[in-house]
Amino acid sequence: xxxxxxxxxxxxxxxxxxxxxxxxxxxxxxxxxxxxxxxxxxxxxxxxxxxxxxxxxxxxxxxxxxxxxxxxxxxxxxxxxxxxxxxxxxxxxxxxxxxxxxxxxxxxxxxxxxxxxxxxxxxxxxxxxxxxxxxxxxxxxxxxxxxxxxxxxxxxxxxxxxxxxxxxxxxxxxxxxxxxxxxxxxxxxxxxxxxxxxxxxxxxxxxxxxxxxxxxxxxxxxxxxxxxxxxxxxxxxxxxxxxxxxxxxxxxxxxxxxxxxxxxxxxxxxxxxxxxxxxxxxxxxxxxxxxxxxxxxxxxxxxxxxxxxxxxxxxxxxxxx
Length: 321
What we know:
By secondary structure, the chain is an alpha/beta fold. It has 2 domains: 2-112, 3-Layer(aba) Sandwich (Rossmann fold), CATH 3.40.50; 121-278 and 310-320, Dihydrodipicolinate Reductase, domain 2 (2-Layer Sandwich), CATH 3.30.360.10. Helices cover 34% and strands 30% of the residues. The protein is built from 9 helices and 14 strands. The protein has helices at 11-22, 36-46, 54-59, 73-82, 97-110, 124-129, 156-171, 280-294, 302-320, and strands spanning 2-7, 26-32, 63-66, 86-90, 114-117, 138-146, 176-184, 193-200, 205-214, 218-225, 228-233, 238-246, 256-259, 265-271. The strands form 2 sheets. Strands 7-8-9-6-10-11-12-14-13 form a 9-stranded mixed sheet. The longest helix is centred in the C-terminal third of the chain and has 19 residues, at 302-320. The chain is globular, with a radius of gyration of 22 Å.
């Protein structure tokens, strides 16, 4: 088992601690939180071992799980990698693309692996249709959240939209050639609602919307490709696949048949893929353990996390002009 330590024991950090303690692939050694008083309370309540310096925690583990505020990701990743430790780092990978690129360079120099916590890749609804998404040419995503003052310290693109950016980049096998975006500030100093249009070299277009002042929560994506439409509800963990095939010569009474202007007839049919319940956070952590053990590419590599951050900043720059 890999020995792992957690940096940061806030809301998400406590979830990671609980799951790592349950994991069969890690031995949870303990955690460090810069608020030592808060750390002492967590240690007393849950029984996790509290370390009083990052250095002592680093010395005791093989892997570091970085769940600190984004501004400190670079510093924490750098010290962990320089100490010879693999890193799991919560999204976004860092505060700037330059920092992210340096994290990649240090990891390569030290021959260490890193994974970024883009957890929607492990959402069971997305997992159920991932292999069915093949060369999509139009994608539409909506990620809407009710207002929470805790989330306004970072731009809505880095807080919410970046999830969908990563998912889209993982299924479109092409480079982004153009970014157009708009943003509106309603409550915060930075936009609370953002819309972006990504144009890819292969002709695919993605339209993304994110809001943190919605009246209801929504996390939906739709993928359109030749002869298929795929929808994923990341919040409700549901998915649907609508496909078309050549219509039979003698369709049944209940068959859905469409005929285009050229007279070609197509039959529409529905698939409801089996969505297998999982804990996405535990899965992302354990696939990273597998990558370390087998020396394979992590599901969400440091490069993946950097590319999502790069596109996110291009969107921010586009609506800031």
